[in-house]
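Reopening: PH domain-containing protein still failing for me.
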Amino acid sequence: MATSETHAQKWIDALAVAGMNVPLRKPVACTPSALSGLHAVNGIDTEPTVKIPKCAPTPFHSLDIHWKRQTDRLDLYSEKGEALVCSPFFCLEDVAWLRFQDPLSGEGLPSRLMRAKASPEFLALSLDGKRLCAISVEDDEYWIVTHSS
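Support: Ran it again with your exact input. Result attached.
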């Protein structure tokens, strides 16, 4: 049986294939907690900022454009292309935030994730913990969900 550490390594390897760097493989203490971030994206009252039908002619191209537009609007990435990513595999009791660096600052990220891990789902948080942007896969749509405080 695969361990949590094995799943975590595979997940980090997929991020690397997508062009992102996770220099420290330790969770980052942050508010809100990663679990709170997941609830903000997956809660029953969650409303997407952008909805893209899965049957659209080029759904991943649309996701790429809207992801970049929303992360730029939120100023999600630092000047060095850094943010926090929600990793579901580092703690058994809780998910965790990991610091990552994307040299493209989110350009084409959904398509890169799809190629790397067969899913565009991703939850990112600004380094100061105030701005969140996520891609969620729903029944018939891809959602981009944003929150800021």
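The helical segments are 4-17, 34-42, 59-74, 109-117. If you still see a failure, please send the error message rather than a screenshot.
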